[in-house]
Amino acid sequence: MIRPEAEITEDMILTHWQLEKELTQKLLESNPEKRWEIFEQSYSQLYRDLNWLNDLTKQTRSDPTWQFAIWTAAIGLPPQTIYEIGSGKGDLIAYLSKQGFDCKGTEITRERGEQHVVNQPNLSWGNSDGIHLQQFEPAAHYNVVISCQVIEHLHPEDLQAHLRGCAAILEPKGRYIFSTPHRFTGPHDISAVFKYDLAQGMHLKEYRYSELVAALKQVGYRQICCPLPPVVQRLTQFGLQPQRWGEAYLQLMLGLEALLALIPVLSLRRTVAKALRRLLVFRDNIFLVAQKI
């Protein structure tokens, strides 16, 4: 996300919009055989032509312990091996490596990733297509695979292949933990600036909980739940099981989502969803933990 105080001109926004529209068309029209090449070229062009995006991207808060609390609570304690898909500027994976986890960050383009994090212990870097991870990593090698704001950038045809790729490099009972913007509070890409109701830019598809839970089950994941918000996590101190609370929280999200889906006008649905978010009973982002069998 761009810092609110960042100085952005109208020309910068229009240039960004035109480029994203052109690149989005290429990405959506790409065939599976050429897709990695086209995605790598497109994202390299985006960050090369609009290099101010890297400069204006929000930096980690002064207290990353607070910012990444929900991630560390979901992951658990080290030692564990963690593989991140789409590490961006590397804030999350660098923080986890400092906590003692054995980490690998990855990106589809060399315009992001390793160049932003230098000489970090417990952290290695690589490139991948973000889909066929078994072609880049050993089978059953990692305890945890994570992605933060990545799935919405994948071609919609590749969702199940992506989930299978994550499962392939996870050890038995390993977990895929990820966040992605919820469609009902979006769009969450540059489309929002131009008042679109659905993403038109390089968020190729923004999802619902129900879609992702169904896809995870089809691939064979089990024990799917939501990581608990930090406030709710405190309840586990009183002997309440985090897994059960996470499953109950997911059912709450699915129920609210089903009710919101009954609102036919997208702008009104978004308004109601954001009102529920302000009441702390809905989220802008889907956040899921899924365990490999």
UniProtKB/TrEMBL annotation:
Keyword Transferase: yes
Domain of life: Bacteria
Protein name in UniProt: Class I SAM-dependent methyltransferase
Keyword list, A-Z: Methyltransferase, Transferase
Cited Gene3D superfamilies: Vaccinia Virus protein VP39 (3.40.50.150)
Origin organism lineage: Bacteria, Bacillati, Cyanobacteriota, Cyanophyceae, Oculatellales
Listed GO biological process terms: methylation
A GO molecular-function descriptor: methyltransferase activity
